[in-house]
UniProtKB/TrEMBL annotation:
It is found in: Cell membrane. SUPFAM superfamilies: ATPase domain of HSP90 chaperone/DNA topoisomerase II/histidine kinase (SSF55874), HAMP domain-like (SSF158472), Homodimeric domain of signal transducing histidine kinase (SSF47384), PYP-like sensor domain (PAS domain) (SSF55785). It comes from Alterisphingorhabdus coralli. Residues 333-386 form the HAMP domain. This is histidine kinase. The lineage of its organism: Bacteria, Pseudomonadati, Pseudomonadota, Alphaproteobacteria, Sphingomonadales. Residues 512-739 form the Histidine kinase domain. It is an enzyme of class 2 (transferase). The keyword Metal-binding does not apply. One of its GO terms (biological process) is regulation of DNA-templated transcription. Its EC number is 2.7.13.3. InterPro entries: HAMP_dom, HATPase_C_sf, HATPase_dom, His_kinase_dom, HisK_dim/P_dom, HisK_dim/P_sf, NtrY, NtrY-like_N. The chain crosses the membrane at residues 29-51, 63-85, 106-131, 311-329.
Length: 746
């Protein structure tokens, strides 16, 4: 399993990096790997060729040749191992650190390879040379001559000793034959002469042996100080040698030289004799013979011995280099592991994970110190980021609070930078200026609201400006103040405020006028009526004139009274008394009365409900609708007079003709009453029609629409003017039905 973790699969072994830089950087190493493999195969082929040559198969290779072949095969093999170790280190580095080039790994492996390979090559070279020169010396002719001389010396010594024993045995056998002619074999004289022969000839022991009928040898006479059974010393090999025709049979034992010869012609009587040999000389002879035999045997295996030694050196050196490279890879892994953790932690920090820490091993080396410094740095960065997050959170809360405040105020607020570009616009400002849902941030203020840009550029920084939004003319009170790198412009819609102020002022004026005018009107009218009754018949010639004058006075007083009543109504509008009413019925009755009063005008009603519940003051709502219908009829009359002013109708009055449409549209939380006509239409400045004393008619008081507006507002509604589809004016009354006012007692 360990090798499986270290070595990559063969399919991926020669794969280089996918990037262009990786391909360019790895190509030389791939070429080197293939080149070294090819060189190793070539050197192996050359070596095999040299070692298997027939004429040199049994000769010792010269030392230079043998060492050169070893080094030539060892260098490419070592290079292959180094390149393999480099590739392993690079792969492990790339797995340990994503995106790493593995240079630190490869440098460590290269350093270990140099440290291990160079001494190994030198040791192998010197060991091979020493061994080869030793082999050449050991198996040279000189060494062989020394061994052969020693063996010949030992062999000559032993041959001389054997010849002496043989000659003495033959001479003693001749003498004993003479003794047997003179005395019996068992006589004392023969025994004395036999002993003399043994001592004289420096033999250690001797015996005369006779062969019995059973073929066994028995001792007849013996000279043996140790009194041994000498008949057993004669071996069948010695008897076989005598039978083959040799006069003496010799035998060499550990401590003596033995000989046997026949005393008679038939070979039935044998003489045995032995002499003790030198133990050292014999052992040296045996050793010399064994050494020479071993030397001859080794001489035949000299080439094989050279090959085995060189192969052993070859394998041991590769094994040592492999172990060194394995140690280098492991050492590089161990050295790079904390750096790998540090790189991974740095990448996590680059992704924003400041909580990443490297493992502190507690060591006191530089890498551990770097890890501790990294942990300290990330801890401080994390604390600072948390502080920034808290600060940003507080700023966000404050910004949200300020945004809520800005959005909740009714005044419009716009913030612009030093170039006049809008940076902030609250909803009130957008409703007041544009009234749509588009975003105007990052647009110049001069394009959105040029009149506010003028205020921002003015020296005073405040102004009351008017502008038209659609069909409405609005009045704004704007103020500009410095705000950081730009300005903050605030403005309020004071249109209604100004209108209310004018209405309040005109209400006071109307009340005073009504009070001052109404008092003398009654006496004037009563006086005119009394004059008409009392003096109407008394005047003769100018009766008609008198009647016309008094009627004029009475009629004008009536007009003044109507005008005073309108002033009173405008000045002292009573609080509405809310009751549940049917708005459809109210509109129908108002239309009926106006249809009777203006028979020449066509009135049409349209409503999408049969009955519309509405909480209101019946009298006031009826008054507002009637006033609007009267205005519509007067607009039609004005248009008719304008169309027919060039035509003379004599004394007859032509009835005005036209169309008035009244519709009711009910919505979820509101109801609209829309009155349209085909009269003269609206003036261009129709926004001021609802202001008191503003009128377009010669005899108008300018209070009708002001009263209508006041009634509508007190019923939680709004009034709007537009051009109708009929070509005249269109007035829309919108009432909020979601509001339930409290009933008011009269």
């Amino acid at each position: 399993m360990a090798s499986a973790n270290i070595l990559p699969s063969f399919a991926n072994w020669f794969r280089v990096s996918d990037s262009d830089d990786g391909i360019e950087n790895e190509r030389p190493y791939v070429v080197a790997e293939w080149s070294m493999a090819a060189l190793l195969l070539v050197m192996l082929a050359i070596t095999v060729r040299i070692l298997t040559t027939e004429d040199a198969a049994d000769r010792v290779l010269p030392a230079i040749w043998a060492s050169s072949l070893l080094i030539a095969n060892l260098i490419p093999a070592m290079m292959i191992l180094v390149l393999m170790a480099r590739r392993i280190a690079k792969r492990r580095a790339e797995k340990a650190i994503a995106g790493s080039s593995g240079r630190y790994h490869t440098r460590l492996v290269g350093l270990f390879a140099i440290v291990a390979a160079v001494p190994t090559l030198l040791v192998v070279l010197f060991a091979s040379l020493l061994f080869q020169y030793g082999v050449e010396f050991w198996y040279s002719d000189r060494a062989r001559g020394v061994l052969e001389n020693a063996n010949e010396l030992a062999l000559g010594y032993n041959d001389q000793s054997a010849r002496d024993v043989r000659n003495e045995t033959l001479a003693m056998a001749g003498d004993l034959r003479d003794y047997l002619t003179q005395a019996q074999i068992d006589s004392p004289e023969f025994a004395e002469g036999y002993s003399y022969q043994v001592v004289y000839r420096q033999l250690n022991e001797s015996a005369i042996l006779e062969r019995g009928d059973d073929g066994m040898l028995r001792t007849a006479v013996i000279v043996d100080p140790e009194n041994r059974n000498l008949a057993s010393r004669v071996t069948p090999e010695m008897l076989q040698e005598l039978a083959s025709g040799n006069d003496v049979a010799l035998s060499f034992t550990d401590d003596r030289i033995e000989s046997v010869t026949a005393l008679d012609a038939e070979g039935e009587v044998l003489l045995y004799a032995s002499r003790a040999s030198s133990q050292l000389a014999l052992s040296q002879w045996e050793r010399a013979r064994a050494v020479l035999s071993d030397y001859d045997e080794l001489s035949g295996r000299t080439r094989s011995l050279q090959l085995r030694f060189n192969v052993a050196l070859y394998l041991v050196s590769l094994l040592l280099l492999t172990i060194a490279l394995w140690v280098a890879v492991k050492f590089a892994d161990r050295m790079v592991a904390p750096l790998s953790d540090l790189v991974g932690a740095s990448r996590e920090v680059s992704r924003g994970n400041l909580a990443t820490r490297v493992t502190d091993t507690g060591a006191r080396d530089e890498v551990s110190m770097l890890g501790r410094a990294f942990n300290s740095m990330t801890e401080k960065l994390d604390d600072q980021r948390q502080a920034l997050i808290r600060a940003n959170h507080q700023l966000d809360e404050r910004r949200a609070f300020m945004q809520t405040v800005v959005e909740s105020v009714s005044a419009g607020i716009i913030s612009v930078d030093e170039k006049g570009v809008i940076q902030l616009m609250n909803s009130s400002a957008q409703e007041l200026l544009i009234d749509d849902n588009q975003s105007y941030v990052d647009r110049p203020l001069s394009d959105v609201a040029p009149f506010l840009a003028d205020v921002a550029q003015s020296d005073e920084g405040r102004a009351v400006v008017q502008f038209r939004r659609g069909n409405d003319m609005l009045t704004l009170a704007a103020r500009s103040s410095p705000g950081g790198m730009g300005q903050v412009i605030t403005f309020d819609d004071i249109t209604q405020q100004l209108l209310d102020q004018r209405q309040a002022a005109w209400s006071d004026v109307a009340r005073r006028i009504a009070h001052e005018i109404k008092n003398p009107l009654t006496p004037i009218q009563l006086a005119a009526e009394r004059l008409k009754r009392r003096f109407g018949k008394a005047i003769g010639e100018d009766t008609d004139t008198f009647q016309q004058l008094t009627e004029t006075i009475i009629r004008q007083v009536g007009d003044l009274r109507n005008m005073v009543d309108e002033f009173s109504s405008f000045a002292r509008m009573p609080k509405p008394v809310f009751r549940d009413e049917n708005l459809v019925d109210l509109v129908r009755q108002a239309v009926f009365m106006q249809r009777v009063a203006n028979p020449g005008i066509t009135y049409t009603t349209d409503h999408n409900v049969a009955e519309q519940g509405f909480s209101c003051d019946r009298r006031q709502i009826s008054q507002a609708i009637i006033n609007l219908l009267k205005n519509a009829a007067e607009a039609i009359e004005t248009r008719s007079d304008s169309d027919n002013e060039s035509v003379d109708h004599g004394d007859s009055e032509q009835m005005p003709t036209g169309n008035i449409s009244v519709s009711i549209e009910a919505h979820e939380n509101s109801v609209d009453v829309i009155i349209s006509d085909d009269g003269i239409g609206l003036p261009d400045d129709h926004d001021h029609l609802i202001e008191p004393y503003v009128t377009t008619r010669d005899k108008g008081t300018g209070l009708g629409l002001a009263i209508v507006k006041k009634i509508v507002e007190e019923h939680f509604g709004t009034i709007a003017f537009a051009t109708s589809d009929l070509g005249g004016a269109k007035v829309t009354l919108t009432f909020d039905t979601s509001i339930s006012p409290d009933p008011v007692s009269e």
